[in-house]
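Teaching note: in complex prediction, the entire set of molecules is handled at once rather than each chain in isolation. The prompt given to students was simply: 'Predict the structure of this complex.' The entities are:
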Amino acid sequence: MATVRVSLGNRGYDIAIDEPGGIGPFVAARVPSRRAYMIADYNVAARAERWQDELNEAGITSRLTTIPPGEASKSLAQLGILYERLAQAHVDRQTAIIAVGGGVVGDLAGFAAATHNRGIPLLIAPTTLLAMVDSSVGGKVGINLPEGKNLVGAFHQPAGVWIATDSLATLPDREYRSGLAEVVKYGVGLDGEFFDWLQAHSEDVTAKSPAALARVIARCCTLKARVVEQDEYETTGVRAVLNLGHTFAHAFETVAGYGTWTHGEAVAAGQVCAGRLAARRGLLPEADLQKVIHLLKAWNLPVAPPEPANVDAWLDAMKRDKKSSGGRIRLVLPTRIGSAGLFDDVSEAEIRGVLDGRAQ
Amino acid sequence: MATVRVSLGNRGYDIAIDEPGGIGPFVAARVPSRRAYMIADYNVAARAERWQDELNEAGITSRLTTIPPGEASKSLAQLGILYERLAQAHVDRQTAIIAVGGGVVGDLAGFAAATHNRGIPLLIAPTTLLAMVDSSVGGKVGINLPEGKNLVGAFHQPAGVWIATDSLATLPDREYRSGLAEVVKYGVGLDGEFFDWLQAHSEDVTAKSPAALARVIARCCTLKARVVEQDEYETTGVRAVLNLGHTFAHAFETVAGYGTWTHGEAVAAGQVCAGRLAARRGLLPEADLQKVIHLLKAWNLPVAPPEPANVDAWLDAMKRDKKSSGGRIRLVLPTRIGSAGLFDDVSEAEIRGVLDGRAQ
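The expected output is the structure of the full assembly:
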């Protein structure tokens, strides 16, 4: 068990990892009104119902609504359904939304929390590895548009994040591996020692050893918290480092349609593209690139863009990325394992070079 | 001409009233990218096009899109259309949205600006009195749901507000009078001297005397700025004072359907309800209530709830108000002309007493 603090002044909060006290007291300490509205992916509805019982024991009244799983739920249509349910349930400014599930539920329910009544409290109880190590921390919430991923959203820090790592026991293998792509990102972009540790313990991680899981999750949350503390609203470039591989990844996802690859799979391939581009520029040693590829492969993650290549469409999607400015693509590139920076001088030819499978 | 500063640290901004320099330099000084996306009510499309020319002269490239006028445009459906246009126009984080029109456009385009790419710069160029004195200042943006007004929204301070009072020359009389209901609110809730001035100059105001207009708009913007500076996110109760009459008003609007009464008409009747309730409690001298009624009548504004009475539905809508908590209605009540407070001990019977026309 561990608690990671995200220090953001009056928007600061705790990430509790396997706290023995249970979710009831955790929420009770953070929701003075003792009223909650739980929004769960229906894959984890049974767990959400158990948590409702625990909340009830802690004196918290709650309702539970479920949404369909999958990236398609991060839509304006699903958001409209949620708004209607919140209004009809008379959810007021003191009622907390508790998002139970993966990144999709956290992002969608989080955006509803950011905008219902101009903002109500949010607690997140992630049940996927990806949500535990990444999307639940830092306040980014939002939905997708047909034109691109996360094009609509807000910054809305949660009042707390509740992580029960035993949720991962029943997580489908593909979802688990997808979360590992984000774990690799933290090592490559921010912490070389952590990357080395991952390399040395990749089999423990594959086997979901409880000690390895707790260490991985606490380390990733801490790394993300430190970045978010320096650049809450992604204005200074510090936070952009967390997007290593993501500009490529969003393009793969947007063009293929959500659901072809998982987000993590796209991020794995995107990291390799970013790494390869960096290596060709002489920024990243080729040996480091190979280490990254090796670790991703050990976890059965893709290390090349999807087939068949659709370079023009990917480039077009990359130009619509939120980091872009005036049509110019800005990319996060690794400079060694453990460090990355934001570059705005990357040419289209360089990007084409790593997107076009034949050139590799 | 005057400039009112809203001091909110790095979210502070200027409200320029009849600045001789023109909109081009005003926007150029606030949008380093020199790119703008103008969203206008199509009633004022011709003015927006003229402003586009002025922006162009100042080196700012812009696109213009129009939306249908009227409260019905503050919908999730219209928002979705706007999101699609922004995405297809590749509007990025450095491009400013310029909202041209009344409160509807400001609220809708403002919410799009708050959430597109997790927030992009917003400038507001209000063309109605209501938008000039109220909705353009303070950062509240949002849309309506069938269940209630402004139930979805955000706080997103603009980068600047550009007021050209000559827009009011062509504003329909009913729209102009509706804005005056909010003007009265500032006098009653915050500034007794201003109320007295309005009483003494009500005919100049009716006649849209340029000197009277400039004074009214600058005073209201200043009063609102001072309140917003103290309570940007409406958490301390200070800002709630600006909602004098609005809990009643939103209920009248929600139940009647938007478009039956203007927002200002509903606010006028709502203020009288709040004043009458306060008078019955002994909070507000009856003579003050009569002064308020007299001034509203001088401007042809309603001073009683709409007919036929629909008390149960109004009460239900009031319970869904964003200020409500746990089903308890919280109301802003005037304590004398120039002062008001937030009360959470108002009984349903008291509210019914002022809603039920027969009892008056």
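Point out the following to students. Residues 210-230 of chain A form the longest helix (21 residues). The mean pLDDT of chain A is 94.
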